[in-house]
Amino acid sequence: MKKTTLEKIFEYASMPVHGTLSRKLRKDIQCQVNDGAIYDGAVFFLGDEFVRITEETDGQMINTYYDWESIISVKTIANKSK
Predict the structure, then answer these.
(1) How many CB atoms lie within 10 A of CB 4?
(2) What pTM did the predictor assign?
(3) Contact assessment for residue 41 and residue 24, using Cβ atoms and an 8 Å cutoff
(4) Are 31 and 21 spatial neighbours (Cβ–Cβ below 8 Å)?
């Protein structure tokens, strides 16, 4: 999958964090990369060479890094609108 396509997917699922280059997942959307962990409320940094996903779990900040070329699939998960 092309980097530009992946960037559009991440941009759809998130919104800019004021004063930074990071993006926070929208509150009604979850995201899964390469059929791995499902991220909810995470912050994404879309770098030139990598994607960093930051999440808080049990009081710890966890950063997960993906090389753009290693991302095979991205799944967005949202509740069905009523």
Answers:
(1) 7
(2) 0.89
(3) yes
(4) no
